[in-house]
Design goal:
The chain has helices at 36-40, 64-73; strands at 16-17, 23-26, 45-47, 53-55, 79-82, 88-90. By secondary structure, the protein is an alpha+beta fold. The chain has a single domain, classed as Alpha-Beta Plaits (2-Layer Sandwich). The strands form 2 sheets. It has a 4-stranded antiparallel sheet, with helices on one face. Strands 3-4 form a two-stranded antiparallel sheet. β5 and β6 (88-90) form a beta hairpin. It is globular. It starts with 15 loop residues before the first strand and ends with a strand. 28% of the residues are buried.
Length: 92
């Protein structure tokens, strides 16, 4: 993985502000490296050398609906998404 592709190199797993004020965060303690998020949304997610999901700078190239689907695909619900008001969108 190229670190230049990260949305934020200082916090590769977020929280990262994305489209329409949504925020995406990967809990690295919950992430088991299944990479289902990458399979569903390769524009938003990748795996780092520790097999933990990170948010890519191309995240805004995907729809928020697909990013939510990627979060739903995570077997440990390690991806958290909030709206512009801070309300949790997923997981509820």
């Amino acid at each position: 993985m190229n670190n230049g592709n990260l949305a934020d190199q200082s916090k590769p797993s977020g929280p990262i502000k994305v489209k329409n004020g949504y925020t995406v965060y990967v809990d690295r303690l919950l992430c088991i490296g299944a990479a289902t998020c990458v399979a569903v949304s390769p524009k938003a997610f990748d795996m780092d050398p520790d097999a933990k999901a990170v948010v890519l700078k191309t995240v805004d190239g995907d729809s928020i609906e697909n990013i939510i689907e990627a979060a739903k695909s995570c077997p440990t619900s390690a991806i958290f998404i909030t709206d512009d008001k801070g309300n949790r969108v997923f997981p509820k």
